[in-house]
Amino acid sequence: MLLSEREVRCLNDEFRLTIEALAKEYNRQAGELRAAYGKLSELTGTTESRDGMVSVTVGPRGQVQDIKLDPRVYRKLSPSQLASAIMDQIDAATEQVADRTKELMAPFMPEGLPLEEVLGEGASIESFLPQPVKLPPEERGARG
Length: 144
Hints:
By secondary structure, the chain is mainly alpha-helical.
């Protein structure tokens, strides 16, 4: 069975419209993912010890950005206790950032697949995304 020229044009138009819709949806999702990744680079976590003596702020990759010590800490804690208190707050603040990262990325992750398995340590989401799909000018037409 041969198709008429009109039927072929109709199928071509349907195919083109489907491809355009898929490209538009891909670009939308990729844009949302890039926006989430931008937020990731700005994440910080700040925690404070229960007694208020030690406060630590870490950045998006767990790097220490600030440590604040109450002046009384030197009279109340030994050097090893102070070191332990600082490390505890670094761990807590880093966990805070990790939890926020998982929250931001959850909408983009396949169900049941941990973020760590997809990205690995130090990976960039940008490296996984191709550039947005650009349709040739003649295909964008008045629908753009």
